[in-house]
Design goal:
mainly alpha; binds Phenylacetyl coenzyme A
Amino acid sequence: MYTQALDSLGKDCLPGGSADSAALEARFQARVDADEKIEPKDWMPDAYRQTLIRQISQHAHSEIVGMLPEGNWITRAPTLRRKAVLIAKVQDEGGHGMYLYSAAETLGISREQMIEQLLAGTAKYSSIFNYPTLTWADIGAVGWLVDGAAIMNQIPICRCSYGPYARAMVRICKEESFHQRQGFEIMLALARGTPEQHQMAQDALNRWWWPSIMMFGPSDTESKHTAQSMRWKIKRFTNDELRQKFIDITAPQAEFLGLRIPDAQLRKEEGSEHYHFGTIDWSEFQAVLKGNGPCNRERLEARRSAHDDGRWVREAAAAHAEKQRARTAKAA
Ligand code: FAQ
């Protein structure tokens, strides 16, 4: 892990330091307010550190579990080009998970601890990845809607107050933007294809629309972390603000595709750029978060068996590293 040299209290609190915690907190908040980046060895309130560990590790787990619904279609992609693009996309998601685990490690948690929490079922990952990809059109819908929602949420994180998280997000967002376009292109091909293909695209939109807008998290009145995370500039917009932006951008795209968003109440508000939308079924969201979505068990099972299958690789890598270390020590 990357935290061996990190003093858990931050350098302002090293023995002999005189600053009291109220003054440290005030200085920390002033730095955040001035849009300075907070770096791993800087002093930070413990709650800020814990909030970041929670959010970044959930984010990393989402990228890793998020490989599963799409990985499911690699062997069945309709053309070689589609297969190559999908492999690249799924591989990118794995990379995003790795950058994010590394960013979280700078806060004093190890990758092993985070993975243990995921496999034990005690860590959250995005609700969206507990839905199945039933047809090829779902791969289009995931790219268009899920990556589209992910970008909307993640572009502001490029300006997050915590340096390692903000920097990791820059590259992630560039790649997500390619993912969104590949999904839209699949939807466009299907929507303009045969009537059966058009219907496949519509069915996928019907199934993915509501779960995608739930991805932004509970409504602002229910979101327990938003207010503090906004003060700390971990979040720059509230869940509802981002959800509204996503709907405003996506509704005209559905129209361009000739597809109908499954919300009878969706309409452009007169004299405004905003769309009014129907009531979200939060009981479905809560059920998925409690582990009762359509694929929660399957997803965790897949991660657990991948972890077991990979044990010999981890052991071999550790044995090799040990051999190298011993060789270097002997030569020194
Ligand atoms: N699913 O008070 P808030 C991707 C939890 S990556 C599950 O509003 P916060 C790429 C929340 O954790 C997608 N749980 O919390 C890709 C908290 O629980 P806790 C992931 C959710 O943190 C594409 C509780 O509810 N993106 O898609 C969800 O301020 C395609 C209260 O909520 C990120 O992680 C949910 N949807 O705001 C990969 C982005 N929403 O911890 C493959 C970074 C909320 O108290 C294929 N994260 N919860 O037990 C964030 O921006 C924030 O953490 C939010 C939640 C906005 C997700």
